[in-house]
Amino acid sequence: MSHHHDDTHGTDPTHMDWDELTPLLERGAELQQPLYAQAAAWIGEQLPAAAVRRVLDIGSGPGVITCLLAEAFPHAEVVAVDSTPALLDRAMARAERRGLGDRVRTHTAEMPGGMDDLGDADLIWAGNSVHHLGDQRAALTGLARRLRPGGMLAVVEGGLQPRHLPRDIGIGRPGLESRIDAASGDWFEEMRGALPDTKAEVEDWRALLAEAGLAPSATRSFLLDIPAPVTVVVREQLVSAFTWQRKALAGRLSDDDAAVLDRLLDPDDEEGFMRRPDCFLLAARTVHTARRG
């Protein structure tokens, strides 16, 4: 998923147990469906639906966005591409439930090695997946080669770190989320540094897409705004996400901040996510598009 946006961090920065992360990934994507529906509609304005016959969803996870793309492009076969069979099973089950089983396919592939076996596509969606590949420039070039003439690559990278709490939450030192973000940023650097063939890259996505041989077309950010008071589903997602952060950032947070986080995660604490009236979900995702000539 994203520049530690909805990535969930394991204690080994290079290892993510995607099977274990499935509920968190799936619920997170479901909550963000309105944002991604807007993004898909925006892509549809650039790429007429009738011209899209095959779509690749790179790093599809449990298939929430795969199904959304299948609904947005009703003439297309949509292929969920992921390295984890259990996630692809969930993607296919979701497609069947939504009546999309005749147009959704799954393809197990480890990126970037499996790129040549994907076949060609009119639209390739890479949602928060490129940053999991050591050589991002080579990955974009490989994806660009899979595009049919006139086809589009949509890369979701960047945006803004999600926010869930006011600056001052009444316990601990104000600014907890900013400090968690800083620790997550360090984690992300370690994760990137430990990837095979990793290369430092200026994250100018338009320039990288141009260097991949494509014509950058547009960039736009989409907002998810779920204000307080939030539903139980949102509260449960916050608990899941911050539980993973608590585990991943062990040793990176001060004892005081870790203690506050433990209170936020306690279902019986009046100051916790499950009870406090002021938690929310505010996030922005940035989508960069580019066309093959």
Written overview of the protein:
The radius of gyration is 19 Å and the shape is globular. The protein has helices at 18-31, 33-46, 64-72, 85-97, 136-145, 176-193, 205-211, 232-248, 255-265; strands at residues 54-58, 77-82, 104-108, 121-127, 147-156, 160-163, 215-226, 281-291. It is of the alpha/beta class and 293 residues long. Strands 1, 2, 3, 4, 5, 6, 7 and 8 form an eight-stranded mixed sheet that branches. Strand 4, helix 5 and strand 5 (147-156) form a beta-alpha-beta unit. Mean pLDDT is 92; it is low at 1-11. Helix 1 (18-31) packs across helix 8 (232-248) and helix 8 (232-248) runs antiparallel to helix 9 (255-265).
Can you give me a brief rundown of this structure?
The protein has helices at 18-31, 33-46, 64-72, 85-97, 136-145, 176-193, 205-211, 232-248, 255-265; strands spanning 54-58, 77-82, 104-108, 121-127, 147-156, 160-163, 215-226, 281-291. With 293 residues, it is an alpha/beta fold.
Distance between the termini: 28 Å
CATH superfamily label = Vaccinia Virus protein VP39
Low-confidence runs of at least 5 consecutive residues: 1-11
Find the CATH topology.
Rossmann fold
